[in-house]
Amino acid sequence: MYLELNGVSKTYNGRVHALDGVSFAVERGQFVSVIGPSGAGKTTLVRLLNGSERCDAGQIVLDGAHLENARGGALRAIQKRLGTIYQDFALVENVSALQNVLNAALPDMGALPALAGSFGRQRRQQALGLLERVGLAGKADEPVRELSGGQKQRVAIARALMRSPALLLADEPVASLDPVTGRQILELMKDIQRTEGVTVLMNSHNLDFARQFSDRLIGLNGGRLVYDGPADADEDTLAAVYAGKAAP
Ligand SMILES: Nc1ncnc2c1ncn2[C@@H]1O[C@H](COP(=O)(O)OP(=O)(O)O)[C@@H](O)[C@H]1O
Ligand SMILES: [Mg+2]
């Protein structure tokens, strides 16, 4: 998916400028990491991009569709092409890995089949195939609460892939994982970007991972875009992204 932000701003409670006039574009199939200190606006950016929050000003254009004024069916049509994964996985702990992946299909199903949980053979096969894709063959029937953190994030990735996303959003996807497991999850995301051609936008406060796995970095500080450039930028440039508040 090709995405473009033009002058995007978001204010909370009329005073916190979480994002302030942010503009950038991402080519289809790029892996972009958004870096910056805590409170920089990274999570807000993901929430605006997946439509769980609305911007106050500016435009967010995803493959030509304007998200900032989309409502109802038009909004759902855009959201259908997005998958989001989170630091805390956001899974249903008491049901199986397979059920969590299948749940991604609920919005596409009629009310009655959804209520009855009749996903059908084809969806079950698709979900099982995705669990295999993320390295969880044999774990389909395992309750999520019994899986490790890395396995949970794999389930969440399979759930995101269930909707064949054109854009994968990831909000600190490895911040709750140990470094070895975190690296494995990023390798999986990288593999999905390469083989499926999915555009990936990841928030990360782990600069090493961001540099290593991304095609490009976006730096936010105090809601403003303070860096947009190659992932192999020098240490001083990147340290500046984290230093103090962006100049007003
Ligand atoms: N729901 C909210 N209500 C009020 N303020 C918020 C809310 N969400 C985020 N903020 C504020 O917006 C700013 C950006 O937050 P966030 O997007 O979570 O940054 P990051 O993910 O980079 O840490 C912070 O100052 C934060 O306190
Ligand atoms: Mg955040």
Would you kindly provide a written description of the structure presented here, covering whatever features stand out?
The chain has 248 residues and is of the alpha/beta class. It has a domain at 91-164. 36% of the residues lie in helices and 25% in strands. It is built from 9 helices and 10 strands. The protein has helices spanning 42-49, 72-79, 97-103, 111-116, 120-133, 149-161, 179-196, 207-213, 235-242, and strands at residues 3-12, 16-26, 31-35, 57-62, 65-66, 82-86, 167-171, 199-203, 216-221, 224-230. It has a 6-stranded mixed sheet, sandwiched between helices. The protein has a 4-stranded antiparallel sheet with strand order 2-1-4-5, with helices on one face. It is globular. The model has no long low-confidence stretch (mean pLDDT 94). Magnesium ion binds at residues 42-43.
Quick structural summary:
The protein has helices at residues 42-49, 72-79, 97-103, 111-116, 120-133, 149-161, 179-196, 207-213, 235-242; strands at residues 3-12, 16-26, 31-35, 57-62, 65-66, 82-86, 167-171, 199-203, 216-221, 224-230. It contains 9 helices and 10 strands. The structure holds adenosine-5'-diphosphate (ADP) and magnesium ion (MG).
